[in-house]
Write a structure and sequence with these properties.
Layout: H1 4-42, H2 50-57, H3 65-87, H4 89-99, E1 106-110, H5 116-122, E2 127-132, H6 135-148, E3 153-157, E4 170-176, H7 185-195, E5 196-207, H8 219-231, E6 235-244, E7 247-255
Parallel strand pairs: 1-2, 1-4, 2-3, 4-5
Antiparallel strand pairs: 5-7, 6-7
Helix pairs in contact: 2-3, 3-6, 4-5
């Protein structure tokens, strides 16, 4: 049987720990909210974080819970889209450089998010199309396209496994740090093959990570990806390594042959 004094001390420590955890969460929420607001104001997109801020300040007892759950999901998507819009530029520019785009190319970006790479590609090619399953990312990307006056680019709803584009409609298909999110890699590669023209180019970029770390692929996983690309019917499969500081990006490159 537990001694009353020992039990009192134990409960006291738990209460203190709970208060510290709550304070830590409050500080983190405050920092993230301020950072998101600052980024949105810088891009003229303050309204895109209003729903998220309303969710973060809403009382947990506010009914109805199903509405609150939906708003939290929408808010997370909006915040994630904002972070991608701010933080993906360097990756996009490096991969666009590897792609060696020409003014005749038609590019498809699978998992485009808010379209950072789409807008960079549009400056060099005939037309760029971004495909993404997130309505929040697409909405933000379309606003950025309008603000920047990007006319030869579009962002459409879809996924790697179901690209809503005709056969042989792209000369370049890429996925920048999104392949590790694909639910069905074989189907995604088959869709990329279908959309590409003969001799069209495929680029799949993933951040190199250590085993057990999320957000990229290990060396072995990149090797498996190369094998999957070859199994999908692509030719000239090879790997390029892009290093910047402590981060390394692996790009699997391939081309579609003349015969399906």
């Amino acid at each position: 049987m537990c001694h009353p004094e020992a039990l009192r001390l134990h409960l006291g420590r738990r209460a203190e720990s709970s208060m510290e955890d709550s304070a830590t969460r409050d500080r983190t929420t405050h920092r993230v909210r301020n950072r998101s607001r600052s980024q949105a104001e810088h891009m003229g997109l303050t309204s895109d974080v209003r729903v998220w801020e309303r969710c973060m300040t809403q009382s947990p007892n506010s009914p109805p819970p199903e509405t609150r759950h939906h708003e939290h999901n929408v808010a997370f998507d909006a915040l994630f889209a904002l972070s991608m819009a701010v933080g993906r530029g360097s990756t996009a520019r490096r991969v666009v450089g590897v792609a060696e785009l020409t003014s005749d190319d038609r590019v498809v970006d699978i998992g485009c998010g808010p379209g950072v790479a789409v807008r960079i590609a549009a400056r060099r090619c005939a037309h760029a199309t971004g495909v993404d399953p997130s309505p929040a990312s697409l909405s933000l990307g379309r606003r950025l396209n309008a603000i920047g006056g990007t006319r030869n680019a579009e962002l459409i709803h879809g996924s790697a496994e179901a690209i809503p584009l005709p056969d042989c409609s792209a000369t370049v298909v890429w996925a920048l740090r999104s392949v590790h999110h694909w639910g069905d890699r074989a189907r995604g590669l088959a869709e990329a093959f279908r959309v590409l023209t003969p001799r069209g180019r495929l680029l799949l970029a993933e951040r190199l990570v250590k085993p057990g770390v999320h957000g990229g692929m290990t060396v072995d996983q990149i090797t498996n990806l190369e094998n999957d690309v070859m199994a999908a019917g692509f030719m000239d499969v090879r790997r390029a390594t892009l290093a910047r500081g402590r981060r390394t990006m692996n790009v699997v490159l391939a081309s579609r042959g003349l015969i399906s």
